[in-house]
Amino acid sequence: MKFVLWIVGLFALAVLLGLASTVNNGYAILFLPPYRMEVSFNLLIVGVIVLILLTHGALRLIGAAASLPAEVRRFQRQKKLKAARHALREAGIAFFEGRYQKAEREAAHSIEDEYSPENKALALLIAARAAGATGDTAKRDAYLTQLDALPERLRLARHMLEAELKLSAKDPLEALAAVERARALSPNLTSALRLELKIRLMQKQPDAVLALTEKLLKADALEPEQARRYRIAAYNQQLAGFTSGAEVARWLKKVPDVERANPDLMQAVIDRLLLLGDDAQAAQLLSASFDKGEASPELSRRLGQLAERLPAATRVELLSRAEKWLAASPDDHWLLVALGRLAFAEQLWGKAQSYLEASLSLQTTLAAHAELARLFEATDKPELAERHYRQSVELALSDEN
């Protein structure tokens, strides 16, 4: 339909031009001494139009010829850019496939011909990360240095990548410096805060770990269970620096109640007190935990360790209270072992034997057999003592295997 309309239109135009030419009977005189020429005015108009078209065509040809080298250069550049973009895509795919050598090689090809700062930064980041994964630190650092020449808005990714690479290489000081540069650009970047948290924990800076944990928890950037683990790790680092039970007591008052109720933390505190020789405070904390119903098998084991280290009066009181705790935890075989040791220390032979045998009925342990062997040896029953010694040795050997 369009073709028919064009044909009709052209014929109509030709008819109009023909009719217009019959109306115009004028002529033009061209005089160039000694020549004189008379031509139809209509022909002159056609000639001028043809001359203009020929001139325009000639100028276009001359312009095309003059711009030919630039067009060739532009074509070559586009060809190289297309290859660079293809190499960048291949580098990204290879990186996530775990083929780091190919990823680094393809990214390096992309860097050479890429002119977009964003794409060049992406290629350098992939190349640096891939080089770090293959252990080529020289190439890794070279790619990171090239990133410094890019616009400042692209340097945040560079600092974050450097922090991760340095942390993976067990270089916490350099990793922390990179994190601080990243936080200077984006102070509340949660990924930077998480990296700093790991670094501070590695450098044994518990106060900083606790502060960062709370900040990340408030920003919903850390799960409560993760926060709990970081707090326990920080508290353990603080505990390791104390040299007396008094220091532990002062520190424990500053710990939130919800954390003091954590059996893992309480276990670490009691272990530190036992190491420092503060048996009385360890027993007090154990009793408080059992009274609150916060006992655990590990705390029961610590109670057994204290059995023969406490004064007689404290031991008697602890034995009486432990019998009440047993009513709340009848299946705690370590609590039964602790009760057996407390009764043994008080020379309550029958009670000690019943507790230890009850523990063995729940769980066969080396400690229960060894305690029964000591008990029968103390009560002049060598055959029974020998049998339990033998069973404890067999159990120890089986545990080693």
UniProtKB/TrEMBL annotation:
Q: What species was this sequence derived from?
A: Crenobacter cavernae
- On the tree of life, the source organism's domain of life is Bacteria
All residue ranges annotated as the HemY N-terminal domain in the record: 26-134
Membrane topology note: Multi-pass membrane protein
Instruction: Report the InterPro entries cross-referenced here.
Output: Heme_biosyn_assoc_TPR_pro, HemY_N, TPR-like_helical_dom_sf
Q: Key word Cell membrane present in the record? A: yes
Keyword Cell membrane included in the entry's annotation: yes
How is this protein named in the record?
Heme biosynthesis protein HemY
- Keyword annotations from UniProtKB, A to Z: Cell inner membrane, Cell membrane, Membrane, Porphyrin biosynthesis, Transmembrane, Transmembrane helix
The principal localisation class reads membrane
Q: Where are the transmembrane segments?
A: 44-70
What biological function has been recorded for the protein in this entry? Answer: Involved in a late step of protoheme IX synthesis.
Location comes to: Cell inner membrane
Q: Which NCBIfam families match?
A: TPR_hemY_coli
Biological pathway: Porphyrin-containing compound metabolism; protoheme biosynthesis
